[in-house]
């Protein structure tokens, strides 16, 4: 039985309420069967998937009124999957992925909390050479680049699953790795723009200093 503690909260997106079950805080840990350890996930990084971070809220608010018509969307490194839950409430074609062994079960439970349709989930790493995910018209993610060596893996993973015409939207909180990532993406043929998110003071307690990174081909 899991020994971590959880909390429940409701977040508002316009007239839509999204109910989420998350870890109580970033001090939680439970890996009795060693699944996370086998994947190289340390006890310090284990809880990071289960918290709603500011960048994740920014992404979810962007997805609240994003044009979803006819688009197959992939959330990379979804964690709790707040953006996926928002898109699912809008009946978007959304698939989610994460490396963490608990992420899929949290997403399933949160989907049920919101009486939503099942969200397809694949546990996969960016270094995996082959997946069954297929190609997507839109790829989204938030706060993904923790380490410099992740730049090459993430850019390759995104490109692997991008349709010939694809838009990529990442929320970067300012960890210092988005410049080399943007260079890697432009070298793969994507056009790059970035901007500050707007109106974050309406739903975040502190000013958000990050950027919305967009790549398109």
CATH topology: Rossmann fold
Number of domains: 1
Helix proportion of residues, in percent? 25-40%
Mean pLDDT: 95
The unreliable regions are: none
- Note the overall shape: globular
The level 1 CATH classification is: Alpha Beta
Widest sheet: strand ordering: 5-4-3-6-7-9-8
Keywords for this entry:
217 residues; alpha/beta; two-stranded antiparallel ribbon
Q: What's the gist of this structure?
A:
The chain is α/β, with parallel strands linked by helices.
Please explain how this structure is put together.
With 217 residues, the chain is of the alpha/beta class. The chain has a single domain (50-216), classed as Vaccinia Virus protein VP39 (Rossmann fold), CATH 3.40.50.150. Helices cover 25% and strands 27% of the residues. It has helices at 35-38, 54-64, 82-89, 103-113, 150-160, 178-187; strands at residues 6-13, 16-23, 72-75, 93-98, 121-123, 136-142, 162-172, 191-195, 211-216. The chain has a seven-stranded mixed β-sheet with strand order 5-4-3-6-7-9-8, with helices on both faces. Helix 2 (54-64) packs parallel to helix 3 (82-89) and helix 5 (150-160) crosses helix 6. The longest helix is centred in the first third of the chain and has 11 residues, at 54-64. The mean pLDDT is 95.
């Amino acid at each position: 039985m899991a020994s971590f503690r959880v909390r429940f909260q409701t977040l508002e997106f316009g007239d839509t309420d999204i109910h989420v079950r998350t870890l109580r805080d970033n001090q939680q840990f439970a890996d009795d069967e060693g699944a996370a350890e086998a994947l190289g996930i340390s006890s310090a990084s284990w809880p990071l998937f289960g918290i709603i971070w500011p960048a994740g809220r920014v992404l979810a608010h962007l997805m609240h009124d994003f044009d979803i018509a006819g688009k197959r969307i992939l959330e990379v490194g979804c964690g709790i999957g707040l953006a996926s839950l928002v898109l699912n409430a809008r009946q978007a074609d959304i698939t989610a992925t994460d490396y963490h062994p608990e992420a899929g079960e949290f997403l399933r439970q949160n989907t049920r909390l919101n009486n939503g349709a099942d969200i397809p989930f694949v546990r996969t790493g960016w270094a995996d050479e082959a997946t069954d995910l297929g190609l997507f018209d839109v790829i989204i993610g938030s706060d993904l680049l923790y380490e410099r060596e992740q730049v090459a893996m993430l850019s390759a993973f995104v490109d692997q699953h991008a349709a010939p015409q694809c838009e990529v939207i990442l929320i970067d909180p300012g960890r210092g790795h988005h410049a080399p990532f943007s260079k890697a993406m432009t070298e793969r043929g994507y056009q790059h723009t970035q901007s500050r998110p707007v109106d974050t003071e309406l739903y975040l307690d502190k000013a958000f200093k990050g950027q919305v990174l967009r790549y398109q081909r």
